[in-house]
Each structure stands twice: as C-alpha cells, then as structure tokens.
Amino acid sequence: MSSPASAVTPARPDDGSSAPAARYDAALAAQVEARWQQRWLEDDVYAAPSRPTSAVDGGQQASTAFVMDMFPYPSGAGLHVGHPLGYIATDVYSRYLRMSGRHVLHTLGYDAFGLPAEQYAVQTGTHPRTSTLANIATMREQLRRLGLGHDPHRSVSTIDPEYYRWTQWIFLQVFGSWYDAEAGRARPIGELVAAFEAGTRATPDGRPWGELSAVERDDVLSGYRLAYADEAPVNWCPGLGTVLANEEVTADKRSERGNFPVFTAALRQWKMRITAYADRLVDDLEPLEWPEAIKIQQRHWIGRSRGAQVRFAVTGGAGAGDGVAHVFTTRPDTLFGATYLVLAPEHPLVDTVLATAWPTTTPAGDPLPESWTGGAATPREAVHAYARGAAARTEDERQDDGRAKTGVWTGATATNPVSGEEVPVFVADYVLMGYGTGAIMAVPAHDQRDFDFARAFDLPLRCVVTPGDDRGTDASTWADAWTAKDGAVTGSDASGARPDGLALDGLDVAAAGEAAASWLAAHDAGHPSTTYRLRDWLFSRQRYWGEPFPVVYDADGVAHAVPEDQLPVELPEVDDYSPRTFDPDDADTSPETPLSRRADWVEVEMDLGDGPQTYRRETNTMPNWAGSCWYELRYLDPHNTERLVDPDVERLWMGPREGKPLGGVDLYVGGAEHAVLHLLYARFWHKVLHDLGHVSSAEPFHRLFNQGMIQAFVYRDARGIPVPAAEVEEGLDDAGRATFSWRGEPVGRELGKIGKSLKNAVAPDEIIAEYGADTLRLYEMGMGPLDAARPWETRAVVGSFRFLQRLWRNVVDEETGEVRVVDEPVDEATARVLARTVDGVRRDYEGLRLNTALAKVIELNNHLVKRGTTPRPVAEALVLLVAPLAPHVAEELWHRLGRTGSVVHAEFPVADEAMLVEAEVTAVVQVRGKVRARLQVPADIDEEDLRERALAAEGVQRVVGDCPIRKVVVRAPNLVNVVV
C-alpha cells in the first residue's frame, strides 16, 4: 500500500478558475477513485481465503462471514441507479465485517442463461454467448466503478461450461436419487434397486424385479426418482414455442413474458419431485432469519393442510355409473354438517356419474329447482356447458370470494359415510382440481363459500358446532357462516343408528376432528391425511440457450445418465436459435426445439457398459432457474475440477454453528419478488445435496434481507405514454403549485419503477461522472431504511457530495493539500460524541440500518465543523467509521493521515465505554404528580443519596411544608416521586 507521500495532490484546474488546489470536487473524486480501485485490484485486498487460519471451533471457522447478493442477469441495457442498492448495502456490510476482524467471502457472478439473449439472437443472428459476454463486461465495469469489494477470483457465470458441468452433475444426483419417506431423506436410487432385487421391497404389481423388462423397470423407478420424465398436463405457450412453469403463467392464463395465451397440453417433460420435500421445506423455515412475509408466502405456496380424506360412495343418476369421491377436509369434526358434495368441473368422476336425464325431485324429495339444472335439458348438457365456461375463467376468478357462486347438479347423489344420508353432487367452479382432491364435502353452516353456494341453490344449512355468539343453532337464520374453530360439537351423533356409529357431541373441535379421523380409518371410510398445494417442478424448456440435459435415451426410450467423466454436455452450434413458434391461439400444436434440428448432435454413439450403442440426446434444455439454484456453493470453491465443493471449505463457510442450526449463507440480499421461485428451488436442491452427504448445511441461506425498490417519477403525456424524464421542465402555476411540461405540452407525474420502457432511467455512470462513486453510495444508503421503497431525486444527490466536501475539509487544507488535523488531547465533549457515534454506528452496521449509521457519522462530522479543529484520534476514527460507506475518500484520507496498509483491513473503532456513561443526568422530582424540581446528579447516584437530595430541594420543601410524607418512590438516577 502507498504511504502518505505517494498520495496524489491534484493540480489546480487549467480552465482559469480559482478553485482551491486540493478541493474535493468531481475531478478529484474521479482521480482518487480510479487510483484506489486499481490499487485494491493490484493488492488483491478482497480475496477471501479458502481456509482462514484464525481460531477454529470444533472444525468450524468461527470468524467467517459469507455475504451474497442475488444473481444479476446481465441485461444489454446496463444498470440504472435502482440496481446497485442491494450491491452497495452488502458491500458496506462486508467492509464493516472485515474491519471487525471477520474473514469475509463476498463476490458476484452472473445468471447468464435467459430468454432475452435468445430473443436477441433470433432477431439479429448474434450468438447468445456473444451478446451475453458483452453485457457481462459492461455490467462488470459499471459495478467496478462503484468501488464494490468483490473477490474477483470467485466470480462465476452460469453459461461457462465449467460451471454448468456441475449444474448437470447436480441434476444427475437428483435423477439418481429417491426420497425415502420412512428415513425422511433422499437416498441413491441404487439402494432402491437393491431392495427390489432382494425382495425386501415389493414392486408395484408384485412381480419379482428380475421378471420386469428394462422399460418396466424404468417406469417403476420413474415413480420414485426425484428427477423424472412424465407425460402430464403442462402449460403450453404456442406463441413462445415453449412450456412454462406454473409460476411463469399469469392469473389470466397468459405468459409473463410476451403476454401470449397459455393452454393445458399433455407433453412428456422433465420434472423435479419437489413435493417429496414439502414438509421439510415448511418446517425448516422456522429457524431461518428471513422476513416473516417471505416465510408466509412460501408456506402458502406449499399449502400444507392437515385433516382427513373421506370416501363418499357416489350413485350416478339414470343411465350413469357409480363411483367413489375422495374428499379431503381440514374439518372432519363437521362431517355431520355436510349437505351436498361439489366436484371440480375437470374432475374425472364427473362423466362417470353424470345422469342422462334429470330426476323428478331432489334427493330430499322436493321439486327440482331450475337453478340446479342451469336451464339445460339434461345433466350432461348442463355440466358440459358449465365446464366450458369454467375453463375460460382463471383460478383467481374462480376463487374470488366476492363473485356469485354458480354450479349445476350432476343428477347423482353421495352417501355420507358417518350418517348414511344421501346428498346431491354438484359441479361448481369454486372447487379446483389442482388443490386437494378436486372434490369437497360442503358444510355450508361452517364455511363461507359453501354458505353462499347453499343460499344461492336453496340447500340445507346444518349447524354442527355451537357458535360462540348469540346467533343460536338454527343456521337457516344466520347472515353468514360460523367458521371459528372453537365451540362444542352438536348434532353429530350416529350411535343410535348403529352400535359403532360415530358420536362427537360435546367434544371440542380439535378432539372431534381426531375422533372422526380415527373412526374413518377404522371403518375403511377414510384416513387422516395431509395435502399440499405445491406441485412438482416442471424442469424442461423448449429453448436453445440453456443447460443441456446430461441424459440420453436408448432404443426403448429409457433414459440413461451421461457418465460424469463426459460432463459437461456442451451446447452445440445451431443455425436457428428460435424454437418453432405457432399462432398464439393454436392450442393443437406441440414443441419443436432448436436442438432437435441438429441431428448429428442428437444421435450419439456411446458405451454405457453394454458396448457401443446409438443413443438419442434430450433436446429440451434446463430452465434458467437451474444455474441459480446452487451458485452459493460454487462461490466457495470456484476452481475445483474434482468435485462440486470441497467438504471442508463448505463446512467452514456454510456449516451449522451456534445461532445457525441449519447452516447456510450468513447474509443473502435481494428482491422480494424471488420469495417463491428461486428461493424454493434453491432450498430443494440444497436439501438433496445435504441428504446425499455433499454438503453439511441443510439450508442454503440462513439470513435473508429484502432490499426495497428505488423508484423514480414517470411523466406521461395526454395519451398516457411516458416521455423522457430528463427532458421534462418544471414550473409553477399562479397558485404556486408545481407544473410539468415536455416540449411545451403539459404532462402528468407519478411515482413508479425505474426502467427503459418508462423513460425515467438514470445510469449510475452519470452520477459518478458528476459527483463520484462515493457520493452515489452515500446517497443511496442515506435515502431511507434499506427495506423500504424510496424515490430517486437527482437534485438531492448534491447533499451527499457536500457532506464529503465537509469531511474532506475537516482533514485536508483545500489550499495547500496538507493535513490540517491537530495533535492535541480530545476534549471531553468531543470524546463523548465520538464514543456515542462509534457505538451507534457499530450497532447500525450490524443491523443493516445503513441510513442511520450515515446520519450518526454526519452528526460527528458536523460537531468537528463547529469545533473548528479536528484532533488526530477523532479524525482517524471518523475516517474508519465512514470507510464502509465511502471507501475511496476514506482510503485517501487514511493515507494522508500517515497510515499505511489499506483501510479495507484497518481495525474498526471501539467505543470508549467510560465515555458512554454520562457523568451527570437530570433527575425529575414530583410531588402530587407535578414536577417540583430538576436536579443535576451523578449518573451512578444511589437511591438513598438521591432521596435525600430530592427532599432537600427548595421547590419540594416549599410544596410539602408541614404535610406528612407518606411515601417516597425513588428510581435512580432519573426520578423521585414524593407522596404526601
């Protein structure tokens, strides 16, 4: 590192101005920042050791800190000022941790597979790799100019074959595993095969394993594998030419990207059996330091519901067959309150039990209401028409509680297994096939949606849980359902009908539910059950720009893993990067991928142990989520060519330890928009790797922090079209109100996202050029709490710049460039301000309260401005306090103060505890509840001394006079209350 003598003293400007030679201005900021960024790079100050050498506690490194940002996608548009918010915050935090003696791993890679690069390739013929690498270079340079302290040796990119070699390897681990529910973990598929071979586990049809053909064995194993190919309903988007995951489809069944129609189609696709981990994905959220809102979203997405599955025997109407409806309910305590059944329009049982003609009466013997028939001539006609209408509605529309309930009767009835009562079976769109079993028992007295449906169709409402209010038990008089899960069960006793009949009366809801579930299981009428909203992860994309699957198919269509020594399976060159797209509204189409057109790549000769054979490669590619599911592990050991990550290295940085029982990254910062997809997928893959013994941590990210969004004003013309924000002129009307115009025409203003499409983007390069990177860093960190949204205001940036100028002047003489600190004792008032600042800033950095940390530093700097001179110890402490926030100017001042070695590794100040204790405090003395005296007393005064001083105070004696004192309450050192 350079000495103070080598610090550059800038020359006076040659533009004829009279600016001071050493004034902190844009030119000096640019010079200082460029020089120190280069020096930090040369001296490798941010390199994190793979195996830190400080004290180890039980094999676990106690002084490490792994800090991460969510993977950025390298867009061709470059960064705007909203992007660096989280990156600057993690940089500030990482710098603070280094200065506090921690070994810090902090780097940044690029999530570089993605649809934008492929679409650009389709439009221009430019290979996606070419444009992506150019975008990465641009982004890396923009980030470098911000002074971010990333370890340059650990940066990765998902498109690097040496990276996606390990993505493919992880896929093979998932493909080669099954989830043993009894053991509660994943196990190698070979152990399952061995159990089948030994006969200790029966095959699905009972035949010996040796009698099954290769295809049959593959089918059996596919039912267990954690990665499997399956023909199942998928989201097919003809306009994009690809299949989409549920999470990539909007509520109105359109693609998030491109807004094309999405249809349900049956295609053979790769899936991940994430549902096997549903319980662990829910339960393991508890010890994680994540925002509660994110945990709630994950729990909701997984949608675990505990209850019972009940078998209702369904009797079809005229000309129809019979069947069994398996109903899942979270309220088995209300079984006796079920007055009808509802099937989702898509339920496979519907066509089986659908009557060909309407019965003349309802199951209760009443005249058939027209509302039950939908005005159709037959149940088949009514249900099929209704199903077509339901298919045109989104799930959100169907689940909208405010929407009128609709449905039609199937003409069939169902038998309640606990009461023997025959109830009608309806089809209604408020029941979804994708949740539970697609069939519900409707208990309208105790479920609001069922209540609304029953009222619309004049169905019985039967109270079976005594309400806790004064509404009574006649549910037909209620204004709404009683849904509370408390109260005694009533009207639920079938013991008179049969000796072993279920009797629940008098039990509370919880006990009744358990008793009902047990009875169902004992009588083969159901069983306790848990259902999930989560579905297996669709893992195939009909794209070129993605990781190839490391599998090949033999002549029988059986999938085989590509041997590990043949990884990576690299993307071949193609002439046409686009999948075949179709008329967006043509649902009768199927995918054709770019890779399928490379016949010389698709057909490959390999020896997988049975001699050379011709195999066919998978022509889909993995989704862009694949590479971002595990990148935290590659950051740990990016150059390891022998294994995914060295176990000792992973244990040092991510292993479980006190306060972090499941291990993981110490701090992970990113947007809340990744609450479900990325975080859920990454947790799943990490748990599989943990189960197989590849990592010691059971969770990838221990502490999660969601930074807020920087917003900016959007200006729209009379048509509502955004206009360039930089060209808008502001004025005042006659009433003094702000007005805005563009090219002489009035425009409206609103706060919104920053982006190219809204024409309000501000590049960080512009701010850096005008004020310097440190100013941008300070402004973004000082805008407000890190997790809150905040508006960008370019004109306000100058405030941060002026603070840096004041800081500079407290240390450096602007005319001479000489250090102007004084070597004199620090007065007590300044020492106390310094101690409070150091203590407060430490706490704020630890808690990511970076805006208040900056405020405290500014307060200390202002104190020195008022003091007139800056004692050297205070100047050095001030520089260290501001170093995480404004590292360039801090490094420059640190060296001008005569210090050697980088401020990056300087020791963060420690508060003088003695100066944190106030010498004197104000004690308030009250008589009859009113303040009668204020006393300056020692902060450590004892209660007896304070009592005597309070009673001797002139104001107290005057009020008390001769009145007897009943009681004196002393709360040293702040309060005395005298009762007379």
Describe the structure.
The protein contains 29 helices and 34 strands. It has 980 residues and is of the alpha+beta class. Strands 10, 11, 12, 13, 14, 15 and 16 form a seven-stranded mixed beta sheet that branches. It has a four-stranded parallel beta sheet with strand order 4-3-22-23, sandwiched between helices. It is 31% helix and 18% strand.
Topology:
Elements: H1 26-43, E1 56-57, E2 60-61, E3 64-69, H2 84-99, E4 103-106, H3 115-124, H4 128-145, H5 161-175, E5 177-180, E6 185-188, H6 189-198, H7 214-222, E7 227-237, E8 242-244, E9 263-272, H8 278-283, H9 292-302, E10 305-315, E11 323-329, E12 340-343, H10 349-353, H11 370-373, H12 379-391, H13 395-398, E13 408-415, E14 422-427, E15 439-442, H14 448-457, H15 509-522, E16 526-531, E17 537-538, E18 551-553, E19 559-561, H16 599-602, E20 603-607, E21 612-617, H17 631-636, H18 647-654, E22 667-670, H19 677-691, E23 704-706, E24 710-716, E25 722-723, E26 729-732, E27 738-742, E28 745-746, E29 748-753, H20 764-771, H21 773-782, E30 790-791, H22 797-811, H23 828-846, H24 850-867, H25 872-882, H26 887-896, H27 913-916, E31 920-927, E32 930-938, H28 943-952, H29 954-960, E33 967-971, E34 975-979
Parallel strand pairs: 3-4, 3-22, 12-14, 22-23, 24-30, 31-34
Antiparallel strand pairs: 1-2, 5-6, 7-8, 7-9, 9-17, 10-11, 10-13, 10-16, 12-15, 13-14, 18-19, 18-21, 20-21, 24-25, 24-29, 26-27, 27-28, 31-32, 33-34
